[in-house]
Amino acid sequence: MSRVAVIGSSGSCEVFRALGAEVFTVATPDEAKDLLNRLESDYAVVFITEDVAPQSEFLAKKNLERDLPAITLLPVAVSQDKGLAKLKRAVEKAVGADILGLGGE
Amino acid sequence: MQKTVNATRMQLITFRRRLKIAVRGHKLLKDKQDELVKAFLELARECQKLRRDLKERLAEASSYQRLAALSMPASALKEALLFSGKRMILEYRQESVLGINVPHFELQSGEAEKAQVRYPYGFAFTSGNLDESLERLAETFPLLIKLAAMEKAVDRLADELERTRRRVNALEHILIPQLKENVKFIEMKLDEMERSNVVRLMKINEQREAAH
After folding, report:
1. What is the ipTM of this complex?
2. B 190-209 → A contacts, CB under 8 A
3. Is B155 part of the contact surface with chain A (CB cutoff 8 Å)?
4. B45-54 pLDDT, tens per residue?
């Protein structure tokens, strides 16, 4: 049950396989979305690299639906700071404004 | 607003009771909201710090990987990472922050193993940079797991906070004023009835005395 999955574009996440995580390569955010829907009941933690990450609203909703898995964006070489943007959105949702000065987007 | 309130003593008592409960509920929810904001901001700040830190570390690891990709054929790199003898298992338990379930993970692959990487490939055909990259990643992984749990908690807390805020606002700006207005309306109506009764009695008394 408590396994770790990494969803990412090919070339960016194969190294995680050597650490014992299960790696799935996809090419587009939509593929990542489908894969996530299929994987969510089997893993405790799912990492998605930022370059193929679906919208952060979708991920936040997924995180609320079930106790597991915990879904997190993984920064890759050419980082777009989507992970910070997602955090920023959560702060805005909770307090009403980005009071931590997270910036992004 | 159309009033459909019965101006009876019974109704007055009911409304007063509801008002009291609403005010108490509002106070409790407000306290909860304050506490949630505190917990949430703390967590979000920590999350932000960890994420920034991790970004740097991962960038470092991937730069080693790129170096490795330069010094060995792509097929060999792919091959080296194709298979792993190790499987990562996490220990999972649920924790509660202000009544909200948040996950907590711990790596379960044993202390000795955690300290060093088990390379899933032979050293003959791979670059040393790849080893370096893997080692960096292995160091980072516990932090990544921590980040995953924290981000889940952030999402959960944000949702709960939003809901609590709505409830507080609904009580504060709609339900409580409405109940207060109803109570006032009934009180005034009852006072009015009382007064008209007194006046009527006085009038009757007057007429009786005039007749005698």
Report:
1. 0.77
2. none
3. yes
4. 888 888 888 8
